[in-house]
Predict the structure.
Amino acid sequence: MKGKQTSKDTDSFYHLAQATEGEQFCRGTACFVARHLDPDRWLAAVPREQRTYCLGNCFSAPASSSDTDRPRIKSLSREPIVLGPIIGGPICSVSASTARGGYAALDQALGLSQVELVKAVELSELRGRGGAGFPTGKKWRAVAEQKGAEKFVVANADEGDPGAYIDRFLLEDDPHRLIEAMAIAGYAVGAAKGYIYLRKEYPRARMALEQALSEARREGFLGERIVHRDFFFDVELVVGRGSYVCGEETALLNSIEGQRPEVRLRPPYPSESGLFGKPTLINNVETLANIPWIVRHGGEAFQRLGFSNSRGSKVLSLNSLFRAPGLYEVDFGITIRQIVEDLGGGLRNETLKGLIIGGPLAGIIPPHLFDTPLGFNELARIGASVGHGGVIAFDEHTSIAELVHHVFEFGAFESCGKCTPCRLGSRRIEQLFHQILEAGQAPTCEKSKPMEIVSVLAMTSLCGLGTGLAEFAQSALRHYAEELESCFT
């Protein structure tokens, strides 16, 4: 791997830099809100020396690394795109992939011009599925139009949002789909090398990808003269070492380079100066999983699916408090109420108090807003977001003060520390709510501080960690003001 050698200072940044032995217990948000289901397992996750904030087992939370359960995986979209072709068990072989049409889109793409491919992605109106919802075609065009002989494609598989486990099972069950999509992207933007940045907490996904990459090279889908065309593209797998902020694309690039994975100032954007200073296309796993379908059916066909300005389908991951947790591929436009009642079957035992979609660094959706349709603009209007697609329900076992403390403890621990508002502000709100939980209310001198800090987080943070914390806090204060009022009076 190119780049600077990893220093001891860089090693100290990561939570899992050293080999992790023994069973790990998750302390992520999906496990936090389900702690009453297995108090002993939750208590095992509490020690502060080493924290694991998501294992991708949110469907069986509170979770452990020893869990072997698999979630239900079901496509309910009228035109299945992402989950529909998944059949069979994990660690899919290249023969099983090609038998159901894998790599056919790559062959088709190499018969098109690069301009035609980029145009198809633009016409599709596909938006990023990793959190920000940025138009994918704009990213592709920005990289394709850059001059220079060396460019890169990076697949962001650092699925760190507690409550999301979509990419985990796409990688375990259909790793060749990602490889095919990356090769298509490489051809479209003029890149010869790709990187998959995978979080360490997904060992089965690592095994699946290592096997798939080896098979793809052997069968001529990576390397020289891919599918007998004059096109070279190869992919390197990089495994992270435990850091939520590496899900932010510029911190991820620093991590691949062996540098301290702090967020970079922008501009320049990665499309201009990304990995090793070269033009770089960065998409998350689910975003790329849509590309083979778009190539086969056309951008216009994809654009006809969906709702409002949210095109195609979206995979959602429901947490363990639902009666029917699991992965569901749905059409945009389905209401939050339908997700809760029809997909999830409601909650197991208790009354639903609220929902976080794409969180925990996202707005809370209270029950009176459950008739809101699932869509990028529609959720933004109520102070929430589609985000990555993790759906975390919480019930009466979790107070809003406890939830705020938990989310800000997570944010403070995972902050890269580069910007002062996030580094100090998140820690201060965590400490304040710790005092509230201990004493029942905030100290008199601190009662006006939370909103001041939240405003600064929203306006001046360098990345989505700080702004997401602000979004979460603002929605908590807006929708649960009565419950929080007693803490500040």
User: Anything to note?
Assistant: Residues 1-6 have pLDDT under 50 and may be disordered.
